[in-house]
Amino acid sequence: MTSPVAQRAHGHSHEPGGHGHSHGLVDPSIKRSRDGLRAVATALVVLAATAIAQLVVFVSSGSVALLADLIHNFGDAATAIPLGIAFALRSARAERWAGLAVVLAIFVSALVAGYEAIDRLIDPRDPEHLITLAAAGALGFLGNWWAAHVRSRAGRRLDSPALIADGAHARADAYVSLAVIASAAVVAAGLPIADPLIGLAITLVILRITWQSWQTVRGTPAQDAAHSHAT
User: Fold this and answer.
1) CATH of the domain at 94
2) How far is it, in rounded angstroms, from Cα 57 to Cα 134?
3) Cβ–Cβ < 8 Å for 195, 65
């Protein structure tokens, strides 16, 4: 006969008249994995769609400020891959490595954006379709803000430094996207040189984000230990 304690643990009685089976609690590591994957996938879709839309506008406008933003958005979307793998594996160590991959992706995007900005200073080309360019900047702001909300909320709930770093990264990117709108406005005012200069400013902001994200991810050994005990 099943003891009352065992019945409470399973949540269902096995006495006659019951439905004949029991349900155990979902393993916390499995729930954490699912929640993490859901957050990562949502942010990936949002940022990939944002970057693709900005790429279409860049082809017609030629704005280096927009190029810096969309390169960063593509890199940000790509960080979902190592994060998704880490959550699927339910591994604290893999999650930390994914956080380092996030930092590396941010740094590489800064290098590419900086190179393009410097190249445009050496070989100036005036951006075109300024209204569309400003709209692309607004789209970048909305896409990054949404992704930041999803990642930060999930990161705090799941105690994931990698997701928290990625959320802070996306939030900063939202403000970076506003620089694209500023670029369109300044170029419209007759100062096309401002476009590559704003691209350089975006590069510096991305480098700052790199450092902040590195600080967040680096401070995870204690959390790694806690996660490994929990799993």
Assistant:
1) 1.20.1510
2) 10
3) yes
